[in-house]
Write a structure and sequence with these properties.
Blueprint: E1 15-21, E2 33-39, H1 43-52, E3 59-62, E4 68-70, E5 75-81, E6 89-93, E7 96-100, H2 105-114, E8 117-118, H3 130-136, E9 139-140, E10 143-144, E11 149-156, E12 161-164, E13 169-172, E14 175-178, E15 187-195, E16 197-198, H4 201-218, H5 238-244, E17 251-252, E18 255-257, E19 265-267, H6 273-291, E20 300-302
Parallel strand pairs: 2-5, 3-5, 4-20
Antiparallel strand pairs: 1-2, 6-7, 7-15, 8-16, 9-10, 11-12, 11-15, 13-14, 17-18, 18-19
Helix pairs in contact: 2-4
Bound molecules: flavin-adenine dinucleotide.
């Protein structure tokens, strides 16, 4: 571990990992290593660890890595894992659920259904954490994360845990950015309070089943992928544009544009992050040439260019 990023004499209860291969932690099963990664023991330990970081250190929170690519040359900063540690979930009031950021989004959907609440079903098909859903404003089938958020809890680079309202963020389609507030430092999500409608458990479970069946029918879930690679441009679908360019099935190295869903890139075997990124650039370039539309990446790419 590079001690330059840390102040000495802090007792932490979590686990540090050096040169952690991130292919193990991202759903594409490809890419480079994080120089170091931290698995906190709990929220208090995470806050304490944040206080040890030097102000300029690069920090990347990682949930289930289902929207993430770390370049082959690796990520030079500190990765923080939330999944399997920030895992509390509880009914906070009759229609409110308080959930920590490391809980899987499908678990929140099932928990809501179990308590006869409606409006969380869309989360069942999003294979990430609550923290990732908050960071991405993840959504599908008409549902969107921030529409059901009542408040969030963040941890700052200063190690302070804060309650925030949705008004403290600029929220849009797959877009969430902190609003500039006096003295605000970098912050990451550690929990949220969601509000749902009173519903009916069996109906919610039936809807979850239906949404999952629709996904199985349309997405290449048998090969490592990161869901939709590009945001849909206004009034159109990235998949339609890529398919119209004849790119379904196009391969670069071990990466391939899915033959089933053109907005998915799959790891067809041994793909590197560079293979995936080259395919992303190829799709963007062909769609720009043919339609004059600039496709924007929905997946998040970090790390050094090789
Ligand atoms: C098969 C498949 C289907 C998918 N379908 C959908 C879909 O229908 N709709 C949709 O919106 N997405 C979909 N996705 C994409 C992905 O599941 C979502 O974006 C999800 O919300 C990412 O959560 P994660 O925990 O995996 O985040 P990660 O991939 O780990 O991280 C994604 C981004 O969020 C940041 N982040 C993660 N945790 C935190 C935190 N606690 N605080 C601050 N930032 C954080 C990361 O730094 C990174 O920038 C799909 C992915 C797959 C593989």
């Amino acid at each position: 571990m590079n001690m330059a990023d840390m102040e000495p004499s802090t007792t932490l209860r979590g686990r540090w990992m050096d040169s952690e291969p991130m292919a193990r932690h991202v759903s594409w099963r490809a890419g480079g290593a994080a120089r170091r990664a931290y698995l906190p023991a709990d929220l208090a330990d995470l806050a304490a660890m944040m206080r040890t970081l030097n102000p300029g250190a690069d920090v990347l929170f990682v949930g289930l890595g289902s929207n993430l690519l770390i370049r082959d040359a690796g990520f030079r900063g500190t990765v923080v894992f939330t999944h399997s540690v920030l895992k509390a979930i509880a009914l906070a009031a009759s229609t409110e659920i308080h959930v920590q950021a490391g809980v899987a989004a499908p678990k929140l959907a099932r928990f809501a259904a179990m308590h006869d609440l409606a409006g969380a079903e869309f989360l069942a098909g999003i294979p990430g954490t609550v923290g990732g859903a908050l960071a991405m404003n993840a959504g599908c089938y008409g549902g969107e994360t921030w529409r059901v958020v009542r408040s969030v809890t963040t941890v700052g680079r200063d190690g302070v845990v804060r309650e925030r309202s949705a008004d403290d963020f600029d929220i849009g389609y797959r877009h969430v950015a902190p609003r500039p507030l006096p003295g605000r430092c970098d912050e990451w999500f550690v929990a949220a309070r969601f509000g749902f409608a009173i519903g009916d458990g069996p109906a919610a479970r039936a809807r979850i089943k239906d949404l999952l069946a629709r996904r199985i029918a349309s997405q290449p879930l048998d090969q490592p992928n990161a869901g939709s690679v590009f945001r849909n441009p206004p009034g159109d679908h990235a998949a339609r544009l890529i398919e119209a360019c004849g790119l379904k099935g196009r391969r670069i190295g071990g990466a391939m544009i899915s033959t089933r869903h053109a907005n998915f890139i799959v790891n067809a075997g041994g793909a590197s992050a560079a293979d995936i990124e080259r395919l992303i650039v190829l799709a963007q370039s062909e769609v720009r040439i043919r339609f004059g539309i600039a496709l924007e990446c929905e997946v998040r790419i970090y790390g050094d260019q090789p």
